Amino acid sequence: MNSESKPIYVTQPSLAPLSEYVELMEEVWNSGILTHNGPKVQQLEAEVAEKFGLNNFSIVLNGTIALQMAIKALGLKGEIITTSFTWVATISAIKWEGCKPVFCDIDPGTLNIDENKIESLITDDTVAIMPVHVFGNPCNVEKIDSIAKKYNLKVIYDAAHAIGSTYNNKSLLSYGDISATSLHATKLFNTGEGGACIANSSELHEKLRRIRFFGHDQEKNVIEDGFNGKMTEIHAALGLANLKYFDKVLRDRQKKYFYYKNFLENKNSLSFQKLDLGTCNYSYFPVIFQSEHQLLQVEKKLNNNQIYPRRYFYPSVNTYTQIVDYQENPISEDISKRILCLPLYKDLTFDEIQRICNLVVESI
Ligand SMILES: Cc1ncc(COP(=O)(O)O)c(C=O)c1O
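^ thats the input. predicted complex w/ pyridoxal-5'-phosphate below
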């Protein structure tokens, strides 16, 4: 198969050499422990916390469960103001915890929640704000924090994309009452499936750990309305193997992000996410076209060449009327029709990026 006939997908998991995973798996086999907060989970929590300077870090099954646990741990019941430019999991987590999503429109540049539109959505039933650091781009955490303080609301960041991003030289995951991240196969750092909660106090941290483990305290009394959110040793071992390569993966993404950007930025009908607060992890390469028609032309051309970018996030989640009451968010609805994430991953070559860019330019 020559390079032109090999399909190129939007992403591929970043994986350590198999031999390094196998070595860790031998240790798991020999230990006879597969789950229940085993040694690999504990080691992974300690290593990630140390690497990113995080306190109160708990690993769980996936990012969606991490969001649900955050809502549960904060005891929220009522309206949660969130963004409509997100993955459906943000909304399903809110709904599964018996709360109501209230959609705030986005800033058309940063693609994050427009912090200037939050206050007008606050009612007597509002209990929290749940912004998303879209594509790892930091939200205006200071402004959001001051709004939350003024109205006595909690803040949960959907930080599914945000590992490796920083704000004020601190991990972006350390902001909010709780941040919830995803360690899914497509994320910059992955455990196959996985997620984590990062709490801003040791009390909340202990509560999250009890929720993760059926609501048990240390003596196995059930003192919390918990469930089973535990990660297995098999997934944790994958995380330990992959973590060693995190810096390399991050640098690679950044290089490729700018390679794409330098090539495409002077093509006047294209625009890009505005990255002006903190430091993004460059985990995605989203391009915003002038119209949905133009996007569809580009997508078709790429697909004809076996290149499969992804319309992400599409559609705007406020339009999922099977699960939510429609609330108009024109900017999110418009952008989601015009945004396409181009392939970006460790094994993607610069020649392939060049070919993708040429095809994009040819078709606009
Ligand atoms: C913004 C956002 N929130 C939440 C999630 C859910 O994460 P997970 O797939 O680990 O459940 C995702 C998944 O991609 C996401 O993009």
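Residues 18-243 form a domain with the Aspartate Aminotransferase; domain 2 fold (CATH 3.40.640.10).
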